[in-house]
Request: fold
Amino acid sequence: MSTTVMQPVRRPTIRQTECFIDGQWTSSQSGKTFETIHPATEETIAQVAEGDQADVELAVRAARKALESGPWSRMDARDRGRLMMKLADLIEHEADELAALETLDNGKPIRDARNADVPLTIDCLRYYAGFADKIHGQTIPIRGNYFCYTRREPVGVVGQIIPWNFPMLMVAWKWGPALAAGCTVVMKPAEQTPLTCLRLARLAQKAGIPDGVINVVPGFGPTAGAAIVKHPGVDKVAFTGEYLTAQTIMKDAAPTLKRLTFELGGKSPNIITADADLDAAAAGAHFGLYFNQGQCCCAGSRVFVEESVHARFIEKLASMNKTRRVGDPFNPETEQGPQVDRAQFDKIMKYIELGKQAGATCVTGGTRVGERGYFVAPTLFDNVSDEMPIAQDEIFGPVMSVLKFKDLDELVARANNTIFGLAAAVWTRDVSKAHYLAKRLRAGTVWINCYDVFDAAAPFGGFKMSGMGRELGEEGLRPYLENKTVTVALG
Ligand code: NAI
Ligand code: MG
Reply:
């Protein structure tokens, strides 16, 4: 990430903690609240309305009304785009405050929130704003004396359930295509990180997006989340999170046959060949795994290193880990903050133990940092073999597994030997090898001599159990549209 000198950080003010339904800020129907914490100190930062089925009911009703009879349903597509641009401008205007709010709720370093989360959020909304008036059908020369054309209409009310690792950015990935397509939204942010989503809802209101178009129901998965998935008034669910949750969502959505898109986890291979620029590859492997505390669906958590350069590569990785700055996420120098909550921290520590027990070599880290907050030292395991749990399961923490390889075709089989298929990367100076591996790797994204390069215009999503459908780019609009074929007899 950038190393430019940063402005000092002002602690954000927490303004929105209630449900946002039909343009109104309200307590949950049950009156219940839940706490959200700052993971660096474990202190409670706010009590947030705990929505459940009753609140989802109201939110779906509002979203249906906005879809079917409100100003949104009559608005010109170009004006929808204009409102989305306005929202992006308002986010830009509050960039520092939003970054600080993200750091407070999620624990990510302020430099990442400022340099990645906020600008990518703005860029995604602007990208999809430009699409609003460029969604159109075709005329089709069918047999006979007919005029046949297609219309691309909004899929309807969409339920959007998002995780805590990029709370604000996930809002943009979900609202962007939904609003461009003319859908209306019932969103449930993750229970760990509801605050920036609620703030963005406030900004959407300020931008003039009509009441009921965006509704936010904070709360928990099995209550608020499941209520969205089961509601017959919801036409489509877009979910990002764990594949086990997606399995539950699929079952819950079956009775109403909802359209579903999933962005799930991964165990992405990052392949370092002997002919690579090893310094760039080591920096890329480090960034590809430790960025965002390792809490990335596409984290390069299986680093395959060609045997002849393995020892040198481990040295480079280890030295970067030793100087990585772990600590207070509000310090602009900090590179790594705490994990998001105790459950994630415990899961990571459990996998570190499993790695040690399985006989992998713990080269750096392997411990927590400090006694308060959910900090985990950047951990590097060498001599990992394919069947170890640390090489199979998504850990979602700062734990890298290094595996050795000799033969390229054997490597491909091993790299693909996982239930996941979200991302992969290859580091090589050999163009043919790069494209050969890009073709053979079963993953939705392949990076060559880079990692974690995201752009609103480039589709992203998983093969196999890493997902269904794609987000971003023109592909990302499709799941928000229904095709209608109209055939008119001529004379
Ligand atoms: P999760 O999948 O349980 O949570 C994601 C979202 O789904 C949250 O908003 C949650 O409230 C909601 N949810 C949970 N159960 C639901 C249900 N039955 N119906 C509807 N919505 C439901 O993920 P969690 O528990 O936060 O993390 C567990 C693991 O999942 C992590 O350790 C990581 O391995 C993986 N994960 C992957 C993410 C990704 O970006 N692919 C993001 C978050 C977690
Ligand atoms: Mg869960």
Notes: Residues 48 and 308 are 54 Å apart (CA to CA). DSSP finds 15 helices and 20 strands in the chain. Residues 1-5 have pLDDT under 50 and may be disordered.
